[in-house]
Design a protein that fits this description.
Low-confidence stretches: 279-283, 291-306
Structural class: alpha+beta
Order of helices and strands: EEHEEEEEEEHHHHEHHH
Radius of gyration: 60 Å
Number of domains: 4
Strand order of the largest sheet: 5-4-7
Strand content: 15-25%
CATH topology of the largest domain: Tetrahydropterin Synthase, Chain A
Largest sheet: 3 strands, antiparallel
């Protein structure tokens, strides 16, 4: 006889209250499981792929609450958010230099392609698709550039790799948001050669700069000398023109009276002696009244002797 049962006098079995409680609990649990299996919630930024008895449906669930057939339909959630994939990559440059790099890929899964992605690739699409394609595109792009160009044209290399990734992955529903080459690493010998070249270029640039500065200074000094010479010549010319103008004005101002006045003003009072074969007289006819005398005797007259 069971623990939760008792036998009546008429021979029938009667369950006690504990048995009823357990039975009710089982029914409630079954109802809860059934209710939970009848709906699903797709998280934000995800797409729900519907599986009906294992078969992938062409339609997908967007984020939010959705009903489903209990125990028949299953919903797999795929993220459509931007995801980051970082990995090292090794390649060979155009000039046969070994290049080790670290790259970062920002990508997202297109929601309309989620069902197809799940059916053909599954949920581990990063390992199955992205990793090998990234390595292939990186090797292909690196081989087109020399090691030096990889350094100086990193942005162009990154753009080329991104275009190649889009061409190979877009058809699967993977869209590349951004591709970054974090760094390039080369052999120690190549790094030493690059450093030596940069030092030589810097020294050459310094020499050229110093030469240009010296030429500029020399040109400035020569220009200053030319300006000074022109100024000096202009000053001399101006002085000569001024002197010539003064002489012209002086010449125009001279007259017989002025000349006579100058001679008288500079006369020392001694009459000059003049010797003549035909007659005698003074070299200059001087009016005694102009000299301030009252009679002709005030100024002795001298005659020429034969």
């Amino acid at each position: 006889m069971g623990r939760f049962e008792e036998i009546r006098r008429d021979g029938t079995v009667k369950k006690n209250g504990m048995g009823k409680l357990i039975g009710g609990g089982i029914a409630v649990a079954a109802a809860i499981v059934l209710l939970a299996s009848s709906f699903t919630i797709v998280p934000a930024g995800h797409t729900g792929v519907i599986l009906t008895l294992g078969k992938v449906s062409n339609t997908v669930y967007t984020e939010g609450f959705h009903l489903r057939i209990p125990f028949v339909q299953q919903v797999e959630s795929l993220s459509n958010k931007i995801q980051v994939y970082e990995t090292p990559a090794s390649a060979v440059s155009k000039d046969l230099q070994t290049v080790s790099s670290k790259i970062a890929v920002n990508y997202r899964l297109v929601s309309d392609k989620s069902a197809e992605m799940y059916q053909n690739v599954g949920t581990d699409y990063q390992t199955v698709l992205i990793t090998p394609v990234v390595q292939e595109c990186m090797k292909s792009a690196t081989a087109k550039y020399t090691a030096e160009q990889l350094i100086t044209e990193r942005a162009a290399v990154g753009d080329e790799v991104k275009s190649a990734l889009d061409a190979k992955l877009n058809s699967y529903g993977i869209y590349i948001e951004k591709f970054n080459i974090v760094n390039f690493d080369f052999s120690a010998e190549f790094n030493t050669a690059i450093e030596a070249k940069q030092v030589a270029e810097q020294n050459l640039l310094k020499t050229e700069t110093e030469q240009k500065q010296a030429i500029t200074i020399a040109e400035a000094q020569a220009k200053q000398k030319v300006i000074a010479a022109e100024a000096n010549a202009n000053a001399i010319l101006a002085e000569a023109e001024a002197q010539a103008e003064a002489n012209r004005l002086l010449e125009e101002s001279l007259s017989d009276k002025v000349i006579a006045y100058e001679q008288i003003d500079k006369w020392d009072g001694v009459m000059p002696k003049v010797v003549s074969g035909e007659g005698s007289g003074m070299l200059i006819d001087i009016d005694p009244d102009k000299l301030g005398g009252s009679s002709a005797n005030s100024v002795p007259q001298q005659s020429a002797e034969n």
